[in-house]
UniProtKB/TrEMBL annotation:
This is SNARE-interacting protein KEULE. Residues 560-570 have a biased composition (Polar residues). InterPro entries: Sec-1-like_dom1, Sec-1-like_dom3a, Sec1-like, Sec1-like_dom2, Sec1-like_sf. Belongs to the STXBP/unc-18/SEC1 family.
């Protein structure tokens, strides 16, 4: 069944928009997958039509693509997926499901579809992605020909994008530029960006029936002697926007909690300018930093069916892959060792694999493993996944060697922990001729974040000249100051909100973490956010740096304050609501079984503590996402990371460059 508009979903294959993460079956991050299936199934009760048409706008099709596969929604009775803004063939015998944003333009399109004597569809079930204004509802009610044809008119409150079992974005790729550039002051984009971001964050809490205690980083310059800049007020303004939305939910959404059930911390990129730039050594971070991935999509060559040639195959590095799930947060050296052990173990238990090994002088290559997939169909999936990750780890190790990344990484971490300074940096730039310009740029950006005062004199220019940076690169280094507070010269943390009183050989900007020593080299670095989350969990956020929009209600028990606070099941978020469980797989009653990242946690994990949400304005990093997973187990509280976007170092640097560009450019127009 095709129309002139085309089947949007089928044109794009199994994954509609190539999103960062697709959710297993029914279960989705923050319940997004479950909510969407709930939407599709709710239309069955009153509909006589077996098959339906699903109509979406550009924004909601992206939400759907992050949550479901085409095969999943076909199972729910959807035979055709259409674009609201493309000309469509009338199908008067079928009912239609509209999943759209509540905008004036979308309402006009919907009314033109369903009004008059010859509507495009028999009946319309309309679901809005966020709260709809009364004026727009009145506009729909005005049309007497449309009203009898509406089977449902509902608000889904679903405007976030799941990137992982514990992460989401609001899809604001230009947030750095629109909120923090010097041109942001007085720009209409500034307010528009903050307003939509607040709405999208709020839909997370609406869909999960959570009411947070809203903490936020306060402006660093609120005093009589200095003028507060708009960019310094971004977390304050966003917190106020989220709070306003939540206040409305308390009166408009059935069963929305009236007392606090969780924590939300809103910060911006100024808390840690190093995390988006430094080389992170986990398997996940290295894949996205060093390989040319399209989202989570990796393309590699496999033997063709006839075995004589090779063909390209696309795979997704995501939660469906058990090897990826196990290794993604492991150090690259640890991941490589574990893969070697897995392969050795597989060969030792498989006679066909042993024959391959004997034939090839004791070594089983990636290509051998790929050939085994054809020879041993019963093991095909297992060998397929294993050979894929052996190949990826091999590529990463080659890049690390070719680009001298161990030396680069060592200096990066020495600078951060105070074991190296200007002298060591200059010596490195003079002697390490094999280091790429991009990696020299990243070194200088770290140095600039730690020592912003050096770039207010000609010292910074001389260092950039020594590194051989281009004019474009220099823009990225200089724009680091847009992410610092205006008082950075006085800050002992060199632009960081958190100041550590640690004296080593040189001024240390991050303290060593006691009790977390790793056997792997280059694993000292940790994002500032990790420490902030731990402080939030203990109720120890610095009062002069973080405010709260709401005083805790008497029944709020997220913080270990008084022994008189009871945590009875009647008030426990975990026992009260299960609809918002993350990543619940099809056929599973427990959000922490099978596909869940937290599957190794105890069965009581989800009952132990209230969720902690953290939102980073200006882009989160993979090290911060990894910290959310790690701390969930450590704190026995599910930590969920949200951000305007999830950025790998090349993307983040490109966005810093865009902060100085006057004309409209896309992220693809600038390369680092």
């Amino acid at each position: 069944m095709e129309s002139e508009g085309g089947n949007v979903a089928q044109e794009r294959g199994q994954r509609w928009c190539g999103g960062e993460g697709s959710w297993p079956g029914v279960g989705g991050a923050l319940g997004s997958g479950g909510l969407l299936f709930e939407m599709l199934r709710s239309t069955r009760k009153n509909s006589k039509s077996t098959w339906k048409v699903l109509i979406m706008d550009k924004f909601t099709v992206k939400i759907m693509s992050y949550a479901c596969k085409m095969a999943d929604i076909t199972e729910e009775g959807v035979s055709l997926v259409e674009d609201l803004y493309k000309r469509r063939q009338p199908l008067p015998s079928l009912d239609a499901i509209y999943f759209i944003q509540p905008t004036k333009e979308n309402i006009v399109m919907f009314l033109s579809d369903m009004s008059g004597r010859s509507p495009l569809y028999k009946k319309a079930y309309v679901f809005f992605s966020s709260p709809v204004h009364k004026e727009l509802v009145a506009q729909i009610k005005k049309d007497s020909s449309v009203l009898p044809r509406i089977g449902a008119l509902s608000e889904m409150n679903l405007e976030y994008f799941a990137i992982d079992s514990q992460g989401f974005t609001t899809d604001h790729e230009r947030a750095l530029e629109e909120l923090f550039s010097e041109n942001a002051e007085g720009s209409h984009k500034y307010n528009a960006c903050l307003n939509t971001m607040a709405t999208r964050i709020s839909t997370v809490f609406a869909s999960m029936r959570e009411f947070p205690r809203v903490h936020y980083r306060v402006a660093k310059t609120i005093n009589a002697s200095t003028m507060t800049t708009l960019r310094d007020l971004v977390p304050t303004k966003l917190a106020a926007g989220v709070w306003n939305c939540l206040a409305k939910y308390k009166t408009t959404i059935p069963e929305f909690p009236q007392t606090e059930t969780c924590e939300l911390l809103i910060v911006d990129r100024s808390i840690d300018q190093i995390a988006p730039i430094i080389h992170e050594w986990t398997y996940d971070a290295m894949c996205h930093d060093l390989l040319c991935l399209d989202g989570n999509k990796y393309v590699h060559e496999v033997p063709s069916k006839n075995g004589s040639t090779t063909e390209k195959k696309e795979v997704l590095l995501e939660d469906h892959d058990p090897v990826w799930l196990e290794l993604r947060h492991a150090h690259i050296a640890d991941a490589s060792e574990r893969l070697h052990d897995k392969m050795t173990n597989f060969v030792s238990k498989n006679k066909a694999a042993q024959l391959h090994q004997a034939r090839n002088g004791g070594e089983v290559s990636t290509r051998d493993l790929q050939k085994m997939v054809q020879a041993l169909p019963q093991y095909s999936d297992q060998i397929d996944k294993l050979s894929l990750h052996v190949e990826i780890a091999g590529k990463l190790n080659n890049i690390i060697r070719e680009q001298c990344l161990r030396d680069v990484g060592q200096l990066e971490q020495d600078l951060v922990f105070g074991d190296a300074g200007t002298k060591e940096l200059i010596n490195f730039l003079r002697t390490q001729l094999g280091v790429s310009r991009e990696n020299k740029l990243r070194l200088l950006m770290i140095y600039a974040a730690l020592n912003p005062e050096k770039f207010e004199s000609d010292k910074g220019a001389k260092l950039m000249q020594l590194a051989g940076l281009s004019a474009d690169d220099m823009i990225a280094v200089n724009n680091m100051r847009c992410l610092c507070g205006p008082d950075t010269k006085k800050s002992s943390g060199g632009g960081f909100t958190l100041k550590f009183d640690v004296h080593k050989k040189k001024q240390a900007h991050r303290k060593e973490r006691t009790g977390e020593e790793s056997a792997w080299a280059l694993s000292r670095f940790y994002p500032v956010l990790e420490e902030l989350i731990e402080k939030l969990s203990k109720g120890e956020l610095p009062k002069d740096e973080y405010n709260c929009m709401n005083d805790p209600s008497p029944s709020f028990h997220g913080l270990p304050t008084s022994s008189s606070v009871r945590t009875s099941p009647a008030h426990s978020m975990r026992s009260r609501r299960t609809g918002g469980t993350w990543a619940r797989p099809r056929g599973s009653d427990d959000g922490y079984s099978s596909d869940s990242v937290l599957k190794h946690a105890s069965s009581d994990f989800k009952k132990l503590g209230q969720r902690i949400f953290v939102f980073v304005i200006g882009g989160a990093t993979r090290s911060e996402l990894c910290a959310a997973h790690k701390l969930s187990s450590k704190l026995k509280r599910e930590v969920i990371l949200g951000s305007s976007s999830l950025d790998d170092p090349p993307q983040f640097i490109t966005k810093l460059k865009l902060m100085s560009v006057e004309e409209e450019l896309t992220l693809d127009d600038l390369q680092i």
